[in-house]
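Milestone M4 deliverable, item 7.
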Amino acid sequence: MSVFTGDPTLAPYLALIVLGFLPSEIWRVIAVFFARGIDEESEIFLFVRSVATVLLVGVVVKIVLIPSHELAIVPVWARVAGIAAAAVAFFAARRSVFAAILAGEAVIVWAAWHWGG
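Output delivered:
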């Protein structure tokens, strides 16, 4: 008897949950328990936050400067303008990540619609 006998089209989704989501989520839950006693202003916490920020910036720069698939149709100046708009919105909206994402995506989507194919 298989888990997929009812509806075999659900197999990829179940595999995604079991093999992709759960192994990552277990470590996140464990980290929450261990991080309770860490002072947010401690040296190790500041170091980890800095490393995470640098990794995020590296990923964003790679996506903007070396795009793949559909993002490649957007001119590089428009992708950089999207980052600039996101930065302005972030600080204008009192450090709102949501506002930054909306502003950056709006610029890139507009450029893709206007100059894309």
